[in-house]
C-alpha cells in the first residue's frame, strides 16, 4: 500500500491541473461558474491518473469497476452542467460572493472558490484512489456498491432529465416542478449524487482499508444537505417562484418519501410572507 501514499500526490497534481485550466477558461469567458463543469471532470482526472499510476497493483476487477463508475458519473454530470450553462451569465451564487471581494475578484475566487473546491474534490475522491491499490478478490461489498451507485446515478440522471424537459416547456413557466421523482424529494439529483459516493465507498469495503475512507462520502453528503448544495439552492429558490412553500410542506427535502397530505401538513406549515416568491428548480 506504500504506492497509494504516492498516489495522493499524483491525485493532488491532477486536481491542480484541472482547476488551473478551468481558471484560465473562466478568465476568458468572464465567469467563474465554469468550475461547476470542472467538478465532475476533476474526479474523472483523479480516477484516470490513479488507474494509470496503479498499473500492476490492486485487483483488476475492482480497479476497472471503480474507474468506470467514476468516469460515467463525472462525464455525465459535466456534460449536463455544460449544456445547461451554455450562453448563460455568471451564476448568482458566484456573483454574490465575488461582488464582496476585497481587492481583485479573480484572486479572491482562487482563494474562496477554487482552493476549497480542489481540497474537497481530493478528499472525497479518496475511495476511488484507494480502490486502485486494494488487493484481494472483490466480494459482496463491491456488488453492493455497484447497486447503490446504479440507483444513485439513475436518480440523478432521471431527475435532471425530468427537470430539463419541464423547464423547456413554455407552458410550465412560473410553475413548480413537482412531478416524477420531484414528487418524492425536492432534490433527486443531490440525493442521487450522495448515493453515487456511498456506492463508490462500499466498493472499497471488501478490503480492511476501505472503511477508513468513510469520511469521504460523509463529507459529500453533508455538503449536499447542509453546505453548498441544498441550503444555498433553496435560499435562492425562495426568491424566484411562487408556490414553493406549499411544495416544501408536502415534499421531502432529501430522502425520497411519499408526499405528505394536506391533513399532515396542516399543522406547522408556514404561510408565504407578502411579497415573497419561491424558487426556480435548478441544480
Describe this structure in words.
The structure is a single chain. The chain is an all-alpha fold and 283 residues long. The chain has two domains: 1-135, no CATH class; 139-283, no CATH class. 64% of the residues lie in helices and 0% in strands. The chain has helices at residues 2-29, 35-53, 60-85, 92-99, 105-124, 126-131, 140-168, 188-202, 215-226, 230-237, 244-250, 262-265. Helix 8 runs antiparallel to helix 9. The model is unreliable at 264-283 (pLDDT under 50).
The rough form would be described as globular
- Structural class category: mainly alpha
End-to-end separation in angstroms reads: 38 Å
Secondary structure: number of strands: 0
Number of folding domains? 2
Number of helices: 12
Range of helix content: 55-70%
Strand residue percentage:
under 5%
Instruction: Let me know the largest β-sheet.
Output: none
Q: What's the rounded overall pLDDT mean?
A: 86
Spans where pLDDT lies below 50 across 5 or more residues? 264-283
Over the alpha carbons, how many angstroms does the gyration radius reach?
Answer: 20 Å
N to C succession of SSEs: HHHHHHHHHHHH
Keywords: Membrane, Transmembrane, Transmembrane helix
Pfam family, one: DUF1295
Organism: Actinomadura meridiana
Protein name: DUF1295 domain-containing protein
